[in-house]
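Closing statement on the D-glutamic acid sub-project.
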Amino acid sequence: MKSSLTENLPSPTQESSQAIGVFDSGVGGLTAVRKLVNMLPNERVAYLGDTARVPYGNKTAATVSAYSQECVSFLIQRKVKLVIVACNTASALALEDVQRISPVPVVGVIAPAAEAALGQTRSGKIGIIGTRATVQSGAYQSAIRNLCVNAGLEREISVVAEACPLFVPFAEEGWHYHPATRLVAEEYLAPLKKAQIDTLILGCTHYPMLTDVLQDVLPNVQLINSGEEAVAIADRILHEQGIHAAQRGMERIVECFVTDKSTAFMSVAERFLGFPLGMAEEIRFGKS
Ligand code: DGL
């Protein structure tokens, strides 16, 4: 089946040797890059983390849209062939605005993860966790609803969504399996447990770092990694447009840019990425 996610895209003017642009509010999108490097080892990545303005998860849609457009414009200037918005908050609040200004395809994380969750669930009970902004936007809820309508699904789908803002600092702190993380997870996930979900969308790119504890609190629940699902859709688009990298070049695999380079950035980034980053270049936007 051809997914609607790969239809109506800008026609290809790019070349296979160009990098894939990946953008996040900070360090979380590196969990998507980790998947990308594993799944598409021939591709190069230009990553931008907006570390000067993180978090996005407690900001208004207008602010998130303005920041996201600035970040994606930077990647477009770097001549990327496709952009992955590896930030659930930016995908929820700003994807259409970013797609409007982009001459290259832009893939968000919401629709791919919603599609994957619908494909996985047996009971029809799907859970979503994310930042406050992502959950309050209702973006996942409407993506799931639209997919059901378009697919003519008769079956009842119920969705329970919970904002889990404390997971972001726990993931960055490296408390992947700390008793405090476990306690907070029990609290946040209680409504999802009660609703007997069988599938959980990790609607924040930080959350894959907490997979073990989440899986422990919700055993037998299928976890959906939104960044990984977005990479799979990006791969499909690159193949359909004939601009996937068929062989590995000599350049650095991941080129990393940040809007603020704190002393902790490299160690947190490398933990999220799972391999040494080497270097990160600090860039400045006009007004920041
Ligand atoms: N990476 C962001 C997301 O996926 C969470 C961090 C933030 O609040 O900016 O939503």
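The CA atoms of residues 122 and 281 lie 45 Å apart. With this model delivered, the sub-project is considered complete and its resources will be redirected to Aim 3.
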